[in-house]
Amino acid sequence: MRLARHRHVLAGLVVGAVLTLTSCAATVSVPPADNADDPLCAEITVRLPAEVDGQERRWTDAQATGAWGTPASVILTCGVEPPGPTEARCITIGGVDWIVDESDPPRYLIRSYGRSPAVEVYADNSVVSPNEVLSTLGPIVSQLPRESECTSTETLLD
Fold first, then answer.
1. CA 29, chain centre distance (Å)
2. Are 73 and 55 in contact (CB under 8 A)?
3. Which one has a higher pLDDT value, 119 or 3?
C-alpha cells in the first residue's frame, strides 16, 4: 500500500515537472498594454487563431496578448493607446485600417487605427507575410468599435 502511494506521488511529481518545463519553454514574455484589462480585449484574445501564416500559437505571460512562431515572429497586444491623426502610412487589410511603422526592417510594427482599444501587431517580415498576418487577424480586430478611419489608405504592404 505504501509503495503504491509513493509511486503515485512520484508519478505526480514527474508529470508536474514535465508540464512546468514544457510550459516554460513555450511561454513568450510580452509586456501587457496599459488597457489590457478592457473587456473588449478579452473578446479579441479568445478569438485568436491557433495558427497565423504557418506559425503555431504560443502561450504568453500577459493579459490580452498573443504570439505565434518559434521564435515569436508575430506578437499581438490589445489595449494599446489608439493612435491619433497621423501622416504615417495607412493600409486597410481584413476590414481594419492599420498604421505601419517600417523603420526597423524586416520587422514591422503595425497598430490598428480608428478602433478603441487599439491593437498592436509585430510581424517579422523575414518569417511571415505582414499581409497574411493582417488578413488573418483583421477580421478578429474588426469586432472592436470603429470610431474613425484613415483618410487615404493602401491595400497591401510591399
1. 12
2. yes
3. 119
CA distances from residue 31 to 41, 77, 87, 143, 147 in whole angstroms, order as listed: 15, 8, 27, 23, 26
Distance (Å, rounded) from C-alpha 106 to C-alpha 127?
9
Q: Which of 26, 24, 37 is nearest to 64 (CA)?
A: 37
Instruction: At 81, list the grid cell.
Output: 493607446
CA gap 20, 64 in Å, rounded: 22
Proportion of the chain above pLDDT 90, given as a percent: 75
Residue extents of the structural domains in the chain: 29-141
Q: How far is CA 67 from CA 33, 56, 120, 139, in A?
A: 14, 8, 12, 17
- 16-29 average pLDDT score: 54
Identify the band that residue 17 occupies on the pLDDT scale cut at 50, 70 and 90.
very low
Q: How far is CA 89 from CA 112, 119, 158, in A?
A: 12, 16, 12
Contacts of 109 (CB under 8 A, 6+ apart): 100, 101, 120, 121, 122
